[in-house]
Description:
This protein is α/β, with parallel strands linked by helices. It has five helices and five strands.
Amino acid sequence: MHYSDSQSSEPSTNPIVIAPDEDILMSNVSNFEAAIESAVTTGKGHVIVDLERVEYLSSLGIGALVRSLRRAREHGGELKLINVREELLRILRLSGVANVLDICTSEEEAVAAFGANVGNVERRLLWTIPRQKKDNEEHSPTS
């Protein structure tokens, strides 16, 4: 019988950082959740969401974070939040979600909180909200 030591000193995975560049609203929450889902499957479950540029997180955005945490755990990982503004932190606390999500003060703290079998951040993804073209931008003027 072969025995595998789960406490190996080699990192088993490296977390991926998702950094949204705007607020998470009803209009973009599905794309935000899809970006996290992709990071969860690529990073074997370990994802850090950097909210430094996010001033507002809708209730749908909060729901997306909770669902993403569940998906991360299904893949054997975790989801951590970093750089959470005081206003967002207050909303997360009032909603009770701050008790469910792991909120860290820095990327280094988040990486350490994943545990010994997790390496350094694999990559950082700046998540940019896709913009829709205006009607007058779709066709160039003819000469």
